[in-house]
Amino acid sequence: MSVERNMPESALNTDDYPMMSDLELRWEKFRRSMMRAKPAMLGGVFLILLVVVSLSAPLIAPQDPGMVDVNLRLKPPVWVEGGSASYFLGTDALGRDVLSRLMYGGRVSIMVGLSSVVISGVIGIVLGLVSGFFGGKIDDLISGFSEIQLAFPFILLAITIMAVVGPGLLNIIVVLGISRWVAYGRVVRGQVISIREREFVEATHALGYPLYRILFMQILPNTLSPLIVIATFAVAGNIISESSLSFLGLGVPPSVVTWGGMLSEGREYLRGAWWMATFPGLAIMATVLSINLIGDWLRDYMDPRLGDDM
Question: Which of 24, 180, 236, 271 lies in the 20 to 30 Å Cα band around 131?
Fold first, then answer.
């Protein structure tokens, strides 16, 4: 049995593969880890298909998601008696095609999940860098503010803000973004405190580098690994939060198709038209599960303490 096959990824180095560059060694470790992480691969394939189908919805959706036809209301899926191939997953209480609405709803979920992560990530990273690097009263102020925000349950805080500003796609993205920066800020702050006294940071001080270059080009790159993992799980959390707020009527307007809105509309027809709530619920579950599987693999891949077990 070859030594290479039994070797953990963390053992890959230039001594074992003298002809490989550092970039090639990193790619080899990534490839081996990904090939062994079958659940993460399945999750990645599902997410790629979801993105492709959602972005292509105007071209491939079988029906107009907003077209109302009361003569077709509550039509069952094609495999149920009375179903039609033209409405593969059935229709809702207004005769709208469930499959088409699922395709369009995925676009909103992806947009909300990713956009909110970008907003919360930028806020958390900037505040975490400033708090950890300068310390003192600035650190006390930012840390105190984060503690106050953590004292409120997230969903209660989001509901309160949405009730004040009103429903809307932009509003829900901003609310989710500003409500979830604390995780990024606390991680970055802890990393910066442990990094700011190292020799390479002191060397940049001695060379007279501007402050922004020290923070964003010297310190920040050394904090990215845990941030990527946090962002991955946060995308899933934002999708669930958007669905929850839309279910409560505090998300996007009813004219915008969302999985949460479909769930809310289908809750009154669970007995007679189970497909109205079942399929958007399955879509949310599969999307969140896929993202969590990828996040779990990224956590293991980027944690050097777990490298020998991968």
Answer: 236
What letter represents residue 252's amino acid? V
pLDDT of residue 10: 42
Q: Domains along the chain? A: 9-36 (no CATH), 39-65+95-309 (1.10.3720.10)
Q: Residue 73: what are its φ and ψ, rounded to 5°?
A: -65, 140
CA distances from 96 to 73, 108, 285 (A): 7, 18, 22
pTM given for the model:
0.75
Q: How many whole angstroms separate alpha carbon 156 and alpha carbon 132?
A: 29
pLDDT in tens, 51-64: 899 889 889 988 88
pLDDT band, residue 120 (cuts 50/70/90): very high
Residues pairing with 79 in the sheet: none
Q: Rounded to whole angstroms, how far apart are CA atoms 1 and 4?
A: 9
Closest CA relative to residue 280, chosen from 58, 85, 109, 76: 109
Closest of 288, 252, 108, 102 to residue 172, by C-alpha: 252
